[in-house]
Amino acid sequence: MNFKILGTGSYVPDHVVTNDDLAKFVETSDEWIAQRVGIKERRVSISDTTADMGIKSAKKALESANVVGADIDLIVGATISADSVCPNLACMVEREIGADCMAFDVSAACSGFIFALETAMGFIERGIAKKVLVVCAERMSKLLDWNDRGTCVIFGDGSASVVLEASEEGFYDSVIHTKGGDDVIDIPTRDGISPFYKVEPKNPFLFMNGQATFKFAVKSISHDVKELLDKTGLTADDIDIVIPHQANKRIIDSAQPKTKIAREKWYINIERFGNVSGASIPIALDEMNRNGLIKKGDKILLTAFGGGLSSGAVVFEW
Amino acid sequence: MTFEKIAEIISENIGCDVSEITEKTTFEDLNIDSLDIAEVAMAIEEEFGLENFEASPSMKTVGDLVEAVENAMS
What we know:
The structure holds 2 protein chains of 2 kinds.
Chain A: E1 2-11, E2 16-18, H1 19-23, H2 30-36, E3 41-43, H3 50-65, E4 74-78, H4 89-97, E5 102-106, H5 112-125, E6 131-139, H6 149-152, E7 157-167, E8 172-178, E9 185-186, E10 207-208, H7 210-232, E11 241-244, H8 249-259, H9 270-273, H10 280-290, E12 299-306, E13 310-317
Parallel strand pairs in A: 4-5, 4-6, 11-12
Antiparallel strand pairs in A: 1-7, 2-3, 6-7, 8-13, 9-10, 12-13
Chain B: H1 2-14, H2 34-48, H3 62-73
Helix pairs in contact in B: 1-2, 1-3
């Protein structure tokens, strides 16, 4: 059993924050960010919650798939910036799209879409779900220390969703890895105010060791792509489109030659959205789909890495 | 020997002339940031067969880097 993608949708907040806007309150410059990270602007929520963004992209994906909420058997959310620990993002989407099904989130940071697809595939493979809505939504702006120029320039807010349907045709395979630990990337939740807990609260903001993250990212892409190609018997030439997680253009520049997949096959939109964590890949996928850049039968390879540490790659046929 | 190889790796990754690099050259002189250093560290791992070679923030010069690689290899 495989899946086909019936529809895609994305939503990003209207508010554009340029590098010059950031240079007004942190010591940085448009030139430095554009050259060193590859980002020119990002979207930042003024009033959308994470669920609001997820609901908006989900509705667009349903419309694009020509199905309604009641047709969906399973909603898998992927987020690290949900509005509440409970209910999860997927449950909030379920209510607003008029679905009545299973709904839960997976947490795998920037690899969230890959982990959500893999989870959905498990339900499809077992015959438990025929139509699955995968929703990635991130309000990264609420996790950041906006005085830390090392991190606040990198991220953006946004959401994207896809509707999958079980299919005998097509093709799907994947590799998934984690290397657990909080020393390279850490995003704490709130500590609460228990009168009994005596441990000093952590810094409440997203922490990232840039060098270690960069090395993990480059190694993960080259390793995961090679492992996936070996596993499937595909060659670099067989792949038509690569959508990498849009974390930093230099990660892609460094990893791409190691995979032997030609540069022109790699889709990059980081300059307009920054790193939207797990929503980055499906935002790019929706953008390509809506701009007619994907042909039926194209073999699309997605490769992601992020907090956890987590990484994974999937290949499927459009 | 280690220095020559490292100078070559830096020059390939950063795109500067290898003759510009001495043990006293600082990363600041080369205008390279922490991610450039991470790229250089990965290339060093490959070249010298090291696992998880980290360039620490206290390293300021190419000479510091050479010393760290020699220590990691010993």
